Amino acid sequence: MTKITPEKDLRIETMRGLALFLMVAGHVIGSSSDLGMKVPDDSVLRYLYDSLVYIRMPLFTAISGYVYAMRPVNSGSDLPRFYLGKFKRIGIPLLVVSTLFFVLQMVVPNTNDKPQLTDIFSIYFFSYAHFWFLQSIFCIFVVIALLEKAGLLLTLRSYGLIFTMALAAPFAWESFPDLFSLDRAMQLFPFFLLGLGLHRFGEQLITRRNVMTMAVVLAILVGIDQAYLFALIDLDEPDVALVGTALGLAAISLLIARRFYFKPLAWLGYFSFEIYLFHVFGTAGARIGLNKLQVHDAWVVFTVSMMLGLLLPVAFKVVLERIGPLRFLSVAFFGAKTRVNRVPPRQKKATA
At what angle do helices 263-270 and 272-292 cross, to 10 degrees? Predict the structure, then answer.
């Protein structure tokens, strides 16, 4: 089986694996009582879902920003080549896998949603299932590359200004268009910038004082959020969004600042893209199969769905890579990894 290469930051891979685990768990449970496992609103699983909703996809996005900052676009980069690389890596799997999922939703019995064939073209332009994230992250890369090309993220001061504007944008405008999931991209953009900034300006941002302050802030925000979940306080929608965004920023900052290494999560992190794309085939298949076997215990369904959702995509990837005639499918399903075309660094003078 594929091993994690030495040059990877295993602590970041652990964080990516954690984000992946939380994301798959969220999709298994479902965002409402008529999706996923269809658990009632007063269940423990629903409580866990609601408690972690501000961390799952924001953490996934922040890790993307942190990893991007290791090989960023700069003033000498070829933007068309960068965008083409991102399309190969993100766009092609988006088109191929979303089409496959759409067809299976139509033909497989007992799925939560039954789309019509006439709706197939809309899935490529608007939010659809979990593929909305791929549309959003591509939009983010488009904007980030332009900001980097203009040199607007090179100093902490200019970065802070862009970060503040990104935070304010979703609150300043009531709604962004759903086209290419731009509305969700705007919500996630600050978290991508957070990850980028924690890598690029780590020495200034990740200090003992800042970490302690963030921990106190996080404790307060978690208390407010829990009080809201248990109906001890009443918050309107803008206040909930504000608390949730702040909670996510604080929690993710601490996770990245105090990141740790845990081998199983790091292993999952290595296969993050494959699992993200194909986990629904395992989770939905497990749920439908267990229901046919009359197995309805929530924790059994949750556990089996998690296992298949995490491991089935890995097995699928390994099989495609090991069977020569099928390797071309790996590019179609998982995209081609490309590197940013950067200006070569200046050669350092030799020292005695």
Answer: 100
83-108 per-position pLDDT tens digit: 999 999 999 999 999 999 999 888 87
CA 224, 229, 235, 239 torsion: positive or negative?
positive
Task: Specify if 164 maps to a domain.
Answer: yes
Distances (CA, A) of 179 to 123, 146, 184, 186, 260: 10, 20, 10, 12, 37
DSSP 177: -
Rg (C-alpha) for the chain, rounded Å, is: 21
Domains held by the chain: number: 1
Rounded Cα gap, residues 177 and 284, in angstroms:
29
Residue 40 lies in a domain: yes
To the nearest 10°, the Cα dihedral for 225, 182, 58, 308?
A: 110
Mean of pLDDT over the chain = 87
Q: How far is it, in rounded angstroms, from Cα 80 to Cα 146? A: 11
What are the two backbone dihedrals, phi and then psi, of residue 236, each rounded to the nearest 5 degrees? -80, 175
Structural domain of 81:
10-49+56-208+261-334
Q: Where does the chain show beta strands of DSSP type E?
A: none
Examine residue 250 and state whether it is found in any structural domain, yes or no. no
Residue 252 resides in a domain: no
